[in-house]
Structure formats: C-alpha cells, structure tokens
C-alpha cells in the first residue's frame, strides 16, 4: 500500500471524524405512553402513563416547581379538536422526581435521571376513545452543558363498554399507541405494540428508605451547611452566656476526678453528652418534618413568613431588646441532678450547660434548624452534630487541660459585642425567608434592589457599631477599639461597597444564592428591554419581538434571523447567532460568567450583529407565517419551534447553548461553539471569526 494511499485514507478518516463531531444531533429519550387499564368502561377514571428511558448523563426537568423560575417544565397538551371520549382530571403528575437547589436559577428544581415517569388521570365519557396530544419537555446535561427541548407526539385509540364486563379479546385489541413525533430510523419511538398498556399496572409510590434519602442529598450542600453550623458553634462559644461557663466546667471536673485518667474519661463523656443532646434535638426535628413536609416548608408563604418573624425575634434578642431565659425551676432541677455525680451527673452537667446557655445559643440553634427545615432528612441532624461538635470540643479540652484557662481573655463587654454582631447577621438573613415567599407568590414586596438596600443599611450599621459609633443596651463604653475589631469593621464596609453596585444592576455572582433574581430588579442600567428606535443606539430599526425577549448586559441585538441578517449586511459586520432558551441553565451561566467579561462584551457590542434565537419561546406567530418542517413534517407555529427547526435543519444541531457566526452569504466563518466557560476560548472564537470575515 503506497504512502499516498495511506495518507488519503487517514485524511478521509479525519474528515469523517470532523463531520461526525460537528453534527451533534442529540436523540430524545425513549418513551412508552400507554393506559394503565386494559378493560375500560364509561365513567371509569384511568391513567395515561408516560415513562421515559433517559440517555446516560442527561436529565429532564419535571413539572412540579415554580414555572417562573426559568427551566422548561414538562407539559402535556391535548388536541381537543381531534380527541374525544374522555375528559382530563387534575394535572399531569410527576412520579418521584429528584429535587435540588440550582444556583443558576436561584431556586429548587425537580428532575429525572435514567428513568422518568408521569401520570395523567382521565375520565372515560364515551365508548370510542381517541387521545391525541404531545408531551413537551427539556433534556439537559452537565457534562457538555447542553439543553435540548423536545416534543413527543402520541395517539391512543381505545374502546370502552357501557357495562363492567369486557372480553379479553376485546380488551387486548382495545389500546393501540402510535407515536408520530419522530420520523428518522435512528430516532426513538413510543412502543407501538397492540397490547401496549394492557399489562401496565398502576405505579405505586413506595416509601423511600433512609439510605435512599441520604444518597439523594447534595454532597456539596450538606458539607457547606455543616461547615456553617460548625462555625456557628464556635461563634456561640464567644457569647456572654457560654464563655463564663468554661471555668465553671473545669472547676466541676478538677474537683471530682480521682485521677488524671478518670478526669480525661469524664471530660470525653461530657463532650459526648453535649453532642448527643443537640443531635437528638436535630433528629427530632428531622423526624417531625419529614421529606414531604420539607417541600411545604420551603415554598409556602406561611412557614417562610413564620421563619422570617422568628429570625427577627432572635435578632432583637441578640441586639439587647430583651433576654431569652428558660424557667428557673427547670434549670434548678437539672442542676440538682448534676450534683449527684457519676455518669448521670456528667450528663446532667452537660444538660445544665445547654439550658443555661439557651439565651445565647437558642437563636443560633433555632437558625440552624430553620435553615435546614426546607432541606432533606439528614440536614438538621448533621447541622446539629456539627454545631455541637464545635461547641463541645473546647469544653472537653479545657476539662482535660485546665492549665489552659490562664491563657483565656477575661470575660467582659467584648462578649456582648459578639452577641450584637450575631444579631445583625440574624437580621440580614431573616429577609431571605421573606424573599422566598415574595418570589413564589409574586407579591412584589422585596424586589432585588429593595433587598440590597436593606442589606446595605444593616451591614453599614454593623460597621459603625464595630467602630464604636453606635451603642446598644448592655454595651460598655469604649475609649478605643482593638486591631481585630478594626479589621472586622473594615471587612464589613468592604462588603457594603461590594453590594452598592448591585443597586444599578451588577450581578453580584458571589451572593446569587441569597439574592432575589435579576428579573425582579426595577432599576438596571445595564439592561435594555423593549427598545424603541430612539433607544436602540447602534440599531437602525426596532428589533422584532423586543417587547418579549431581551439580551443580557445591555447588548443591543435582534431576535429574528432575517431581520438580523439584513442588519449585518447594512452594518458590514459578521452575524453572531445565539441559539438559547428561557429554560437553558447553561445559557444563563455562559451569560453570567463569559459574556459579562469586558473582553467578550466589547467584541459582541462592537464587532458583530447579535441575534438571540430562543428555541422555547411559545409566542404563536400569525397563521401566514406557519410552515411545515421538511425535517419532521410538523407544522411550526411558534417562534421557538421555528428557531429550533432552523438550528436542526441548517446546522444539524439541536442543543443549547450553541453559537454560530456567519458572513453575509450565510456561510460559516469558524466552527460553531457550544458550552465553554473558559473566557479566553470564547475570545479566541470571536477573534478568529472577525479575522476570517476580514479575509473574505
């Protein structure tokens, strides 16, 4: 075989690989859509069962979270003109979806991996049943950062009897399912066997075990929560109710231990008792709330308003408005049992510490339990364990090494200052709960700019307090401040300065999980929505659909391909196409991390005409603009359907985000780019396209 022939083979192979890697068509899940009953009669309520086999490393969003959050919910649409013989009962129900907090959308989302299931209850109203509809949904992956919207069309035909008796032969032929959503041979179809649905039993919602719940926990979220709880335990040690208890504890053990070994053993038992008391409290909260109750706690306005008021109450207590104390009779009884000695005495000594310190640790412990109430089963247990661990370690060590007491600072006014600082933090965090209720119910009380204004005022007051400019009840007069306090004041004012640009639309990425979404911001100088000709700046005409759609970071552009192409020709610039979607989480991440960079933003504004083509926009166009796709034979009526069809037929790709740059002849300038948060890679992508455009 000659070298030239080998070279030709290698070159051909590489070209084929290049073509295959460029044509990244993502196949949809494999769906089974069927009725769960084989014998039907008029008046019965039965279920349409939708089951999906989802490709590896992909997931589809469910339909039981806030539709305004961002991702595209799974929805069932029934063609009422062509369907007959039934009525819908309730709404499409997701069966056991997973749940997580999504930092990009700043809220809880539900989703399915590997397998997904939905049910729709219908009531049979006629003997001939025809169900024609479509299931629309979004499939995403975190591996490549892609999201793809799909529609699964289906037709179910069946017969029902007026009596309860139906022959087996009739029932076996009663249900047939025809999926006409996909046409190519290599795409997935719904099961078309004549008995589909005859053997399907009603899905039962099984109780999930403790291990299953633990496996579903978000590892990073739990670890982060435990770290915060541990730090809260350390902070509790510096409160005026707890700090003076350290020498008292050491005195208790040093006076009763017969030997060094016995003292060490008793000290460890003491620390374990503290951990056990707090952890049992967390376990009780977990057992009472349960996973279903947790979902109600995290979304309903009643618990969120209650938590908001509880945090405010705790904050006022820390700030010195009043004292939190347990009944003296209870404390005295426990303390009396501690005096008896032995193992029970050690335990009740720990219990005494917990009770006596309640006025300072109560708000912190309550905050931990409330913060975990909307989470999973393990969260309050692990939170209380981490808190008590930090709380118990110093007491245990000082009981073992009493000589360390000589190095401790004397208790005094500085302890009350720690308590006040915690009060300011409680006050700031309280508004997170009010914000959740406000967003879910669209009250409009706590928009992003109002929320930021509140935080700016709270932390500014904290900074002035640390500098001694504000005095609260129980504070001692200060002639001077120490260096640590000055450093903390400086840090607080730096944080305030960081927050201020947020009032004018700065994204404040580091606080995205605590702030209301950008869409609630009333005054944003970086965003331009609903442009007019006079406001369009470099645009020479009003963009179509500008009242519905927008580009981030004040980028001026279009939302219709033909209009944008004409504008690019007039401006003598390349056309930058952004295939995006309202529910595309990785599109938002690209905009927040990459497009916001000054290098990228400058190039998009100055060197290109930008068009954003939303593939999930449901605005229905005039009938004169409808067309039937050559790809799947379906009629495209909406902006999103037409944009998605354009991406598939023209670029052989159906995932978002997807970035394409064309010249005026609609030819590619560079290879299209998908999800990639490396800013330099994106800058190179833009620069290469501009350079190639200049050579043509």
UniProtKB/TrEMBL annotation:
PANTHER family named in the record: THIOL:DISULFIDE INTERCHANGE PROTEIN DSBD
Location of the Cytochrome C biogenesis protein transmembrane domain: 226-434
Signal peptide start-end: 1-23
InterPro entries: Cyt_c_assmbl_TM_dom (IPR003834), DsbDN (IPR028250), Thioredoxin-like_sf (IPR036249)
Entry's localization field: Membrane
Annotated transmembrane regions: 222-246, 267-289, 301-322, 343-369, 381-401, 413-430, 450-467, 488-506
Naturally occurring in which organism (per UniProt): Belliella kenyensis
Protein name: Protein-disulfide reductase DsbD family protein
Keyword Transmembrane helix recorded: yes
Subcellular location, principal: membrane
Domain Thiol:disulfide interchange protein DsbD N-terminal: 42-155
Pfam families in alphabetical order: DsbD_N (PF11412), DsbD_TM (PF02683), Thioredoxin_7 (PF13899)
Top-level taxon of the source organism: Bacteria
Bilayer disposition of the protein: Multi-pass membrane protein
Keywords assigned by UniProt, alphabetized: Cytochrome c-type biogenesis, Membrane, Signal, Transmembrane, Transmembrane helix
């Amino acid at each position: 075989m000659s070298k030239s022939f080998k070279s030709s083979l290698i070159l051909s192979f590489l070209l084929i690989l290049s073509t295959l890697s460029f044509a990244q068509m993502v196949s949809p899940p494999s769906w089974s859509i069927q009725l769960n009953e084989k014998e039907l009669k008029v008046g019965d309520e039965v279920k349409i069962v939708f089951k999906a086999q989802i490709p590896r490393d992909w997931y589809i969003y469910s339909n039981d979270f806030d539709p305004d959050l961002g991702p595209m919910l799974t929805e069932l649409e029934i063609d009422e003109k062509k369907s007959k013989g039934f009525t819908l009962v309730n709404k499409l129900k997701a069966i056991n979806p997973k749940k997580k907090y999504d930092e990009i959308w700043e809220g809880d989302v539900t989703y399915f991996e590997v397998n997904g299931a939905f049910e729709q209850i219908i009531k049979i109203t006629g003997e001939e049943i025809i169900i024609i509809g479509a299931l629309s949904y979004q499939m995403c992956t975190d591996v490549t950062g892609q999201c793809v919207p799909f529609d699964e069309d289906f037709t179910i035909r069946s017969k029902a009897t007026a009596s309860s008796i139906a022959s087996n032969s009739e029932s076996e032929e009663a249900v047939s399912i025809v999926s006409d959503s996909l046409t190519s041979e290599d795409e997935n179809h719904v099961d078309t066997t004549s008995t589909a649905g005859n053997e399907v039993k009603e899905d039962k919602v099984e109780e999930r075990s403790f291990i299953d719940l633990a496996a579903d926990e978000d590892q990073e979220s739990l670890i982060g929560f435990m770290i915060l709880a541990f730090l809260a335990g350390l902070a509790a040690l510096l409160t005026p109710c707890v700090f003076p208890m350290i020498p008292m504890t050491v005195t208790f053990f040093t006076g009763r231990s017969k030997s060094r070994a016995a003292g060490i053993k008793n000290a460890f038992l003491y620390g374990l008792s503290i951990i056990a008391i707090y952890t049992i409290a967390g376990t009780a909260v977990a057992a009472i709330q349960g996973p279903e109750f947790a979902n109600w706690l995290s979304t309903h306005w009643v618990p969120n308003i209650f938590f908001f008021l509880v945090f405010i109450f705790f904050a006022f207590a820390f700030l010195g408005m009043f004292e939190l104390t347990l009944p003296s009779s209870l404390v005295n009884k426990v303390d009396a049992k501690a005096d008896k000695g032995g193992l029970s005495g050690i335990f009740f000594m720990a219990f005494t510490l917990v009770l006596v310190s309640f006025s300072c640790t109560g708000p912190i412990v309550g905050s931990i339990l409330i913060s975990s109430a909307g989470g999973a089963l393990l969260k309050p247990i692990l939170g209380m364990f981490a808190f008590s661990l930090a709380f118990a370690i110093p007491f245990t060590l000082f009981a073992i090494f009493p000589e360390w007491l000589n190095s401790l600072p004397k208790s005094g006014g500085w302890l009350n200052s720690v308590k006040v600082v915690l009060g300011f933090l409680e006050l700031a965090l309280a508004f997170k709960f009010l914000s959740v209720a406000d967003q879910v119910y669209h009250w409009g009380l706590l928009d992003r700019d109002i929320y930021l204004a509140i935080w700016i005022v709270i932390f500014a007051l904290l900074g002035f307090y640390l500098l001694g400019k504000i005095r609260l009840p129980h504070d001692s007069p200060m002639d001077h401040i120490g260096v640590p306090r000055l450093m903390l004041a400086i840090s607080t004012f730096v944080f305030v300065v960081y927050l201020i640009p947020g009032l004018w639309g700065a994204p404040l990425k580091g606080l995205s999980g605590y702030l209301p979404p950008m869409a609630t911001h009333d005054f944003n100088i970086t965003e331009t929505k609903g442009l007019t000709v006079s406001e369009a700046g470099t645009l020479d005409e009003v963009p179509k659909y500008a009242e519905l759609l927008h580009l981030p970071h004040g980028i001026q552009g279009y939302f219709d391909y033909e209009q944008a192409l004409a504008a690019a020709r007039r401006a003598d610039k390349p056309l930058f196409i952004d295939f995006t979607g309202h529910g595309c989480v990785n599109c938002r991440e690209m905009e927040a991390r990459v497009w916001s960079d000054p290098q990228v933003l400058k190039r998009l504004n100055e060197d290109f005409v930008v068009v954003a083509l939303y593939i999930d926009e449901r605005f229905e166009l005039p009938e004169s603009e409808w067309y039937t796709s050559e790809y799947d034979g379906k009629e495209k009526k909406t902006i999103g359907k037409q944009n998605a069809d354009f991406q598939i037929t023209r670029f052989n790709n159906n995932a978002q985000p997807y970035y394409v740059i064309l010249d005026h002849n609609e030819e590619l300038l560079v290879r299209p780019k998908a999800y990639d948060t490396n800013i330099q890679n994106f800058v190179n992508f833009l620069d290469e396209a501009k350079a190639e455009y200049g050579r043509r």
